[in-house]
Amino acid sequence: MTWVKVGTAVALVLSIVALSAVLYFIYLPKPSPLPPPPVPKIVVVPIDFALDRPQVDWLVQNLTKLSQRDDVVGLILLVNSPGGTVSATEMLYSTLLSINKTKYTVVAGLAASGAYYISVATEKIYASPSSWVGSIGVIAIMWPENYFYEIPDYLYTTGPLKYYGRELLDYYNDVEKIRINFVNAVLKGRGEKIKTDPRIFETAAMFTAVEALQLGLIDEVGSVLDAAREMAEKLNLKNYSLVYLGDLARDGGRKLDVKTLLSRETIPMLYILPTAIEWNFQMDNVKNVTDAKPRDSMGKPYVVLDMAHQNLIPSSFLEVLRAELATVGYALLPATTEYELSELLKNASGCIIVNPVTPFSKTGVSAVVNATKRGVKVLYFYDMRASGVIAIGLWRYVVPYSAIAPYDPLLMYFNMSGLRSVYNYTTGATTHIENWQFVIVHPNNWSLLNGVSKLVLFSPSAVSTNAPHKLEVAGYVFGYGEGIYTVAAQVGNFTFVGSVRSFTPYFITLGDNSKFFKNLVSWLTS
Questions:
Q1: Is the torsion defined by CA of 208, 210, 213, 219 positive or negative?
Q2: What is the Cα–Cα distance from 359 to 328, expressed in whole angstroms?
Q3: In this predicted model, what pLDDT tens digit does every residue of 291-313 receive, in sequence order?
Q4: In a shared domain, residues 114 and 157
Q5: Which of 7-11, 346-350, 400-404, 499-503 has maximum average pLDDT?
Q6: Nearest residue to 131 via CA among 154, 106, 167, 102
Q7: Does residue 209 sit in the same domain as residue 351?
Q8: Is 521 part of a structural domain of the chain?
Q9: pLDDT tens sequence across 121-168
């Protein structure tokens, strides 16, 4: 009886256990299904601003985060930028090179200078049909006082370069090295895709999308969607999403202000279009710097300074000119209109014309030509890469380009035409792209070169001329190749000199530049 009860109890317990087990497995929480893998993302990165540190710093931080995300498989730079500072551009370029993901660029408007620099860090470059690409070059802005004026007597330095930091020739070479870094980045990024002589890059020209495609600067004419589809095919993506990093245009402008650049950096260097810089000056301010008042010569013989053609004249050039004229007892009188030029030439001993921006009219040409026929000597200085120092209050700016047409009617009257820049082969460089800033000239026989054995001419401009007296240099001119080019010439009472900066403080002390300038002034006033 007892065993029956025990068996019944055991059976009951087993039944309860079995029922509990069944109920447990019935109501046991089922594991959640694994989440589907994330959809691969191609991220579009808009770059619609001038490349400067605040915006580029933000962009680099976000690109670094994207580089660490497994769901991001590719980047498309959507570029519409004039370029920017060297430091910001090179930081962004280095960051893009280090990101181990597929990278394309789509130019939607403009990829100039630094904007093209960062584009060559990507595997493929597209451009919309109306886009512009190129401007491979460097702009450097420096305080004129840093190199063109003497160290104050009350300032003691522990070494000759403590004040300046380096010799000016070294500075020019450094700017050129930065340009070569740019060219090398293009050659490295584009490689065999380049379909033209790389020497075309020395001109810093801009190209349409079609021209850029023909030259090998881009790969396709197309849009963001074209680039995304091609990237998806390359990565074998059946399904992907196209997402935007964000519109950065609100955080940065399309231009850089020269005041900000000059106050923020000691020597700002830029991979940028000159038109993308807010220079903050008016052409009328040139006269405030270069006006040679008073107009009365105080009974002295005088030389006329042409100011009737919006001339860009470095103030430091005028300092040297006035000082040299003073030593021979001559005054310098400005002519601000062609009528005034004509009137002053009637009693002048000579006339100096420097970097005219607007061409001479028929009246102006006649005034100068008739003066030469009467025995008035005319010195015409010109530099295609001329820079004029413009002063506004406490600020000074360097105006980088003179805009005169290459066929000035005054020059053409004296059978001089086709102004073009001579590139360097003469200062130890093995190719013309190593440094085009200056050439060393060993002159030939010409009365204006008496006592001159070596000249160091900065950014000389050449003319085509059959003048009987010439100063010639061996160099390279884009479109014409290597050869001997004329950078100064004399026809009767008219002399052309294709350099301006060579006769300003510091530069004029190099070689026999000072002697040549003295000869020119002596001829002008003889």
A1: positive
A2: 31
A3: 444 455 566 899 999 999 888 78
A4: yes
A5: 346-350
A6: 106
A7: no
A8: yes
A9: 999 999 999 999 988 888 776 654 444 444 455 555 555 555 555 565
Sign of CA pseudo-dihedral 74, 80, 82, 87: negative
* DSSP H or E run through 202: none
**Number of structural domains the chain divides into:** 2
The verdict on residue 324 lying in a domain is yes
Average pLDDT over residues 491-509: 89
Confidence label for 6 from pLDDT (cuts 50, 70 and 90): low
| Nearest one of 82, 137, 84 to 112, comparing CA atoms | 82
Q: What is the span of the domain harbouring residue 88?
A: 41-278
Long-range contacts from 61-64, C-beta under 8 angstroms, 24+ separation: 62/245, 62/246, 63/95, 63/96, 63/99, 64/95
Say which CATH number the domain at 177 has.
3.90.226.10
63 alpha-carbon distance from chain centroid: 27
Q: Does 10 map to a domain? A: no
Element (H, E) at 173: helix 168-190
Q: What backbone phi and psi angles, to 5 degrees, belong to 343?
A: -70, -45
User: Which pLDDT band, with edges at 50, 70 and 90, does 504 fall under?
Assistant: confident
Q: Is residue 16 part of a domain?
A: no
DSSP letters spanning 249-302: GGGS-SSEEHHHHHHH-SS-EEEE-GGGEE----TTHHHHHH-------TTS-E
What is the CA angle 294-402-524, rounded to 5?
Answer: 50
Task: Let me know whether 51 and 71 are in one domain.
Answer: yes
CA angle 91, 217, 406 (to 5 degrees): 100
What's the token pair of residue 99?
């990101």
Same-domain status, 334 and 266: no
User: ω into residue 334 within 30 of 0, thus cis?
Assistant: no
> What is d(CA 122, CA 79) in angstroms, rounded to the nearest whole number?
12
Predicted pLDDT of residue 407: 59
The DSSP code sequence of 314-349 is: -HHHHHHHHHHHHHTT-EEEEE-SHHHHHHHHTS-S
Question: Cβ neighbours of residue 472 under 8 Å, at least 6 residues apart?
Answer: 441, 444, 484, 485, 486, 487
Tell me if 116 sits within 8 A of 135, measured CB to CB: yes
- Between 289 and 229, whose confidence is greater? 229
* Same domain, yes or no: 402 and 417: yes
